[in-house]
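Exercise 7b. Backbone tokens:
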């Protein structure tokens, strides 16, 4: 708020009280208007939010006897943005830039226009110099709600296909007992330290400054003179709620999902925070995962691997597929069933990687044993380890 705005604003009119109103009348008017226009009672109503800021600003000035006197004196001198000289002057009023006066007086160190050499600091006292980070204004600003983090455990299939799960969350929301004001009477005052901004400046050298949360109001911009017994003056109370959250298809174990605007509610019309959900995925007895691909190990018989053949392979949540084994398929070979894997971000699917595992029979019948004995005799001259020993010697 500029100095010119300060002088031109009629705070008595804002609160709807006469200029000779008592402190009790001002307080009563502020309470009534604050309750009617509080952002928590008028969610999404920008007009009510602006009205609440004006009411708080007016109460911060008129509710303090010292500030009220400084305001009345300033209005008497510069009520219309112009200076009215005494009887010995020109009899009329002439306009000049108020910024010249508040900026430190006339150049050259002499008496400024109208004879105020030192600016108007003496007239206004500490009204404009309260050390706040946000300048001289007394407006309280909307405050964003806190972010919330939660965890959810999904089955393997839910992670691949997506799922809607209930999440019970605890967060800080506006206290119902005091309507989020922090004051049991519903009439907090603007913090004099940060003048409603919730932040204070901290010098860092070199002409720069940083901002920190105001230590007096804890970043709220408001101070409760009569602290609410439920929230202890914070304006926030712990609440629990259950929300149905949609987990997208294709999430992986340990992934952190951000849901905008699903966190704790904001204050004074501020936006809600975000919800972060950390996903844990259970293992599957058959399928595994590698990036966007699913994996499965399929046992095959010795004859299927040696002679070739067709093998049925299960898929996750769908009908089985048939893969053709070429003759002489070695143990551990991986084949690919396209489009049977996990869902990608673009909606397409990865592949199913099928690894062949030759199954060795534990018990042989007489006929099967005779057949294998005959096979061993037929291949007696072959040594599959010959190259292994030859390579070992070369190394």
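Sequence design result:
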């Amino acid at each position: 708020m500029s100095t010119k705005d300060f002088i031109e604003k009629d705070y008595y009119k804002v609160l709807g009280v006469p200029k000779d109103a008592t402190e009790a009348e001002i307080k009563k008017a502020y309470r009534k208007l604050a309750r009617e226009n509080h952002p928590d009672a008028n969610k999404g109503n920008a007009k009510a939010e602006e009205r609440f800021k004006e009411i708080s600003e007016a109460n911060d000035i008129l509710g303090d006897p010292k500030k009220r006197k400084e305001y009345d004196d300033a209005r008497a001198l510069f009520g219309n943005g112009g200076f009215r000289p005494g009887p010995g002057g020109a009899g009329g009023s002439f306009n000049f830039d108020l910024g010249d006066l508040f900026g430190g007086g006339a150049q050259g160190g002499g008496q400024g226009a109208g004879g105020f050499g030192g600016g108007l600091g003496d007239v206004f006292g500490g009204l404009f110099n309260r050390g706040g980070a946000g300048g001289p204004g007394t407006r309280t600003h909307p405050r964003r709600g806190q972010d919330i983090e939660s965890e959810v455990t999904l089955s393997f299939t839910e992670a691949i296909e997506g799922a809607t799960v209930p999440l019970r969350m605890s967060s800080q929301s506006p206290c119902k007992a005091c309507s989020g004001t922090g004051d049991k009477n519903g009439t907090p005052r603007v913090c004099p330290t940060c003048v409603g901004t919730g932040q204070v400046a901290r010098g860092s050298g070199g002409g720069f400054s940083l901002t920190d949360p105001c230590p007096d109001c804890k970043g709220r911009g408001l101070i409760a003179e009569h602290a609410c017994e439920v929230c202890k003056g914070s304006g926030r109370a712990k609440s629990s709620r259950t929300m149905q959250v949609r987990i997208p298809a294709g999430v992986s174990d340990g992934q952190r999902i951000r849901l905008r605007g699903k966190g704790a509610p904001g204050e004074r019309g501020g936006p809600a925070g975000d919800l972060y959900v950390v996903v844990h995925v259970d293992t599957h007895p058959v399928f595994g995962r590698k990036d966007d691909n699913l994996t499965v190990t399929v046992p095959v018989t010795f004859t299927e691997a040696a002679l070739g053949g067709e093998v049925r392979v299960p898929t996750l949540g769908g009908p089985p597929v048939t893969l053709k084994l070429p003759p002489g398929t070695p143990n551990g070979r991986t084949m690919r069933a396209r489009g049977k894997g996990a869902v990608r971000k673009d909606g397409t699917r990865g592949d199913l990687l099928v690894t062949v595992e030759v199954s060795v029979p534990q018990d042989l019948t007489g006929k099967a044993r005779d057949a294998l004995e005959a096979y061993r005799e037929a291949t007696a001259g072959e040594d599959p380890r010959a190259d292994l020993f030859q390579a070992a010697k070369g190394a």
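Instructor comment: DSSP finds eleven helices and 17 strands in the chain. The two ends are 84 Å apart (CA to CA).
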